[in-house]
Every structure is written in structure tokens, then in C-alpha cells.
Specification:
heterodimer; A: alpha+beta; Glutaredoxin; B: mainly alpha; 72% helix; flat; disordered N terminus
Chain lengths: 79, 367
């Protein structure tokens, strides 16, 4: 199971990112553990300078905007 | 004030859109983009040049004269709304493309290890072109400091990024002409450079929150970056227009409508006694004091400011008001409070407010 974290202080784009990933995972039937990281300390720890950021299994894959739908599907497809 | 920039993109994000251009059928993607952009630019210029005639004829068709209050207010609204929206669309696109050359990660690399002085100038300049959003202010702040960017230089960036933004510049250019826009740009940069330099000289590192200092002592991970092709950059520009114009247009319309009412109905020279050149010395500080707690964006405030100016308010007083509304806001202070101790916040607000006051007085004196 993938562990996906969305980094962001709670702005509209962060919420949208979370929702997009949730929907994509549901549509594809991929099991994920989704977590929202709002703590600035933790966000800074990942080295992300612009939110929302996306971390999959401990690795930063995206930063600074709502990711494209196709991009999210790529992440979910990658084993 | 920075909320309008919430959806700005970064280079990292944009790299993810490389597949986009491939969906356009046929030919080299760069040419495909140009075959759309060039006619669009021509059409844009044509429509823009016809706006005065358009406003005039609509007012005439409604059987109104510009000598009446209603006619004049309507003319103001019908002329300025499409003009500002057109300018906004065009310039935000160009800025969106320019920003693909300046991701936050690149800015950090450029600023890392710079000293006070030259570093402040560079940071203020980068603040104008680097994508910035107030909800990212804290991660950005920590990212810069952890890369060895001095505190004072970081502040120059943090002051210039929200204050000198493209929406403010577009509106100033559209409503007042290029001279005022250039002055705003120059003075905004000056305030950012001087305020950042002053904060640097005060050596206030110990007034950072403790957890921030703990992070700075350690090492942080790095996010990715990379180069982009032109179709990707154009696509980024289009996204930028969608994000920014899609967000600010209601503010623009409400702002211009209010401005139109003031323009048509408030008597000439009404503002002269309170905000004019011969107003008492306290009119500039009063404008700043009113502006700081106000929370709106450039798109909403500038059309109102234009109308006030037309009624005899002095440019320096009005610019000081505008800068304080845009650069200093309560929500931003609350976000920054997470990384700064109260004393440093107070110094930050105080130094920036002082810079704005100075700008207001200088303008009133010179112009």
C-alpha cells in the first residue's frame, strides 16, 4: 500500500490536491493511505518551498501547485 | 497582500505538464502555439484600440450624455472594465511565461551565500519574478534561510514578492500610465531593499522561533527542478492567466464599479482637503494606519484609488495607502508569527511601514 502525504498549510489548492488524489485512487481501485501534513516544521523538513507538495513513500514527487490528473495516475500506477 | 497569488505555479509543477503539447494535433508544438498566440495578440491589440469608441457608443445608445452623473459613471465603468481585464490577461500571460525561468528553488540557489547589500537588491528583484503565494510564505522563508541566505536578504524577498506583483503593476499601468507604474515598481523595490538591509543590520536571528533555528542547524532535503521547452512555458503562461484572472475578475469589477460611482457622483476636489497635497502632515500616516489592517488585493483597491485621485487626493498619500494595504496585512502577520517571535514581527511591520511613509512624503513633495 502506498503512503501518500499532501504537504500544505490548509490553503484551497492543498485541499483540492488531496481530493484529486483521493478520487483518482478510488476510481482506479488502488489502496492508499492518504495523510495531510499541515505542520510547517514537517513541511520544511521535506525541503519543499512551495505548497502544496506531494510525498509518496517518503519521497517528494511534486511541489508548488495542484498536480495534473494524468500525473496523479502515473504515481498510482507506479508500483 | 498576497492572496491573489495563491495559485501561482512553480517550475517543478510545470515540468509535469510536458505531455500537454503532445495532445495538440500535427506539427511542431512550438509552431502550434505561435499559430494561436500571434493572431490572438493581433486581435487583442485591435479590441484594445477600439475600447474608447465602444464605451462612447454604448453610453450614446442608452440615450445618456457624459455630462450627467450616470452617463459619466457608466462610461468610466464600460471603458475601464474591458481595458483592465484585457491588460490583465495579456500581461499575466507574459509574466507566467517569465516565471517559468524562476522557480523558488532557482531563486534559492541564486541567493544562497549572498551578503547584505548586493544580496538585498538581488532578492528584491527576484521577488518580482519568482512565483509567490502567501500560503507558501513559511516554507519559502525556511527554505531560503536553510540554504544560507541571510535573514536580511530573505526579508527583502518577502517584502518585494507580495508588494510588487504583476496585478498591481498592470492596474497601475492601465489606469495611470507607465510612469506611475514604473515609480511604484522602483519605490517598491527600494522599500524592500532598504527594509531588508535594516533588518539584517539589526542581527535579529535570535528572534526566530526556536524550531526554525533547530531546522537551520540541520540539513534539509531538496526538491527537484529542471529545464523546460517553449510549449511548456506557453502552457504555463496560459495556466497562469486561468489561475490569476479567474480569481481576481470579481474584485476588478466591484472595484471599478465603486470607482465609477465615486468618479460620477463625488464632487471634484472633495478629497483635496483630507488627502490632497495641502492636507495636514498626518494624512500620510493616517492613510498607512487605515491601510495596514485592511485586507483586500490590488485588483480591488486600485480602481478606487484611481477615482480618489481624480477627486483631488495626492498621489503620495494614495500610493502609501495602497502599498500598506498590499504589503502589510493581518493574515500574513499571523502566518509569519509561526516562524518569527513577536519582536521580529514588530520590527518587520515597523520597518516596512516606515519605508512606505517615506515614499508617501517623497511623492507628495516631488510631484
Amino acid at each position: 500500500m502506498k503512503e501518500i502525504k499532501v504537504l500544505g498549510s490548509g490553503c484551497a489548492n492543498c485541499k483540492r490536491t488531496l481530493k484529486l488524489i483521493e478520487d483518482a485512487a478510488k476510481a482506479k481501485g488502488v489502496e492508499v493511505r492518504l495523510e495531510k501534513v499541515e505542520d510547517f516544521k514537517a513541511i520544511a523538513g521535506y525541503g519543499v518551498m512551495s505548497t502544496p507538495g506531494v510525498v509518496i513513500d517518503g519521497k517528494v514527487v511534486h511541489a508548488g501547485g495542484v498536480p495534473e490528473r494524468e500525473k496523479i495516475e502515473q504515481w498510482l500506477n507506479a508500483a | 497582500m498576497t492572496t491573489i497569488n495563491v495559485a501561482k505555479e512553480t517550475g517543478v509543477r510545470l515540468n509535469d505538464m510536458s505531455h500537454r503539447a503532445e495532445y495538440l494535433p500535427g506539427g511542431n508544438p512550438t509552431w502550434r502555439w505561435l499559430s494561436v498566440l500571434v493572431p490572438a495578440a493581433v486581435l487583442w491589440a485591435f479590441v484594445y484600440s477600439r475600447l474608447p469608441a465602444f464605451a462612447e457608443s454604448v453610453v450614446g445608445l442608452l440615450g445618456l450624455s457624459r455630462d450627467t452623473h450616470l452617463g459619466e459613471a457608466l462610461h468610466f465603468f464600460l471603458y475601464d472594465t474591458p481595458k483592465v481585464l484585457l491588460l490583465l490577461g495579456g500581461i499575466v500571460f507574459v509574466i507566467g511565461v517569465i516565471q517559468t525561468f524562476f522557480s523558488p528553488e532557482r531563486t534559492r540557489a541564486l541567493l544562497s551565500g549572498r551578503r547584505l547589500g548586493a544580496g538585498n537588491v538581488m532578492a528584491a528583484g527576484l521577488g518580482v519574478v519568482t512565483p509567490f503565494c502567501s500560503c507558501s510564505a513559511v516554507p519559502l522563508f525556511i527554505g531560503l534561510l536553510s540554504a544560507g541566505v541571510p535573514l536580511g536578504v530573505t526579508f527583502s524577498f518577502l517584502i518585494s514578492a507580495p508588494m510588487v506583483n504583476e496585478v498591481a503593476l498592470v492596474l497601475l499601468f492601465g489606469l495611470f500610465g507607465w510612469k506611475v507604474a514604473a515609480l511604484y515598481l522602483g519605490l517598491g523595490l527600494l522599500v524592500a531593499v532598504v527594509a531588508g538591509f535594516a533588518i539584517g543590520q539589526l542581527r535579529m536571528e535570535r528572534h526566530l522561533e526556536d524550531w526554525v533555528r533547530a531546522i537551520l542547524a540541520g540539513e534539509t532535503a531538496q526538491a527537484v527542478g529542471g529545464t523546460m521547452s517553449w510549449p511548456e512555458r506557453f502552457s504555463a503562461g496560459a495556466h497562469h492567466v486561468w489561475a490569476i484572472v479567474g480569481k481576481v475578475w470579481p474584485y476588478v469589477i466591484v472595484g471599478i464599479a465603486l470607482g465609477a460611482l465615486i468618479h460620477g457622483y463625488v464632487p471634484e476636489d472633495f478629497m483635496a482637503s483630507i488627502m490632497g497635497k495641502d492636507a495636514p502632515w498626518w494624512s500620510v500616516p493616517a492613510a498607512v494606519a487605515i491601510g495596514v489592517p485592511m485586507y483586500t488585493n490590488a485588483a480591488g483597491i486600485i480602481p478606487i484609488v484611481q477615482a480618489l485621485l481624480g477627486k483631488g487626493a495626492a498621489l503620495g498619500t494614495v500610493l502609501a495607502f495602497m502599498m500598506s494595504v498590499i504589503a502589510l496585512s493581518a493574515p500574513e502577520m499571523i502566518i509569519l508569527r509561526k516562524v518569527l517571535k513577536p519582536r521580529l514581527i514588530a520590527v518587520f511591520a515597523g520597518v516596512v511601514a516606515a519605508g512606505i511613509l517615506l515614499v508617501g512624503y517623497v511623492f507628495n513633495l516631488v510631484l
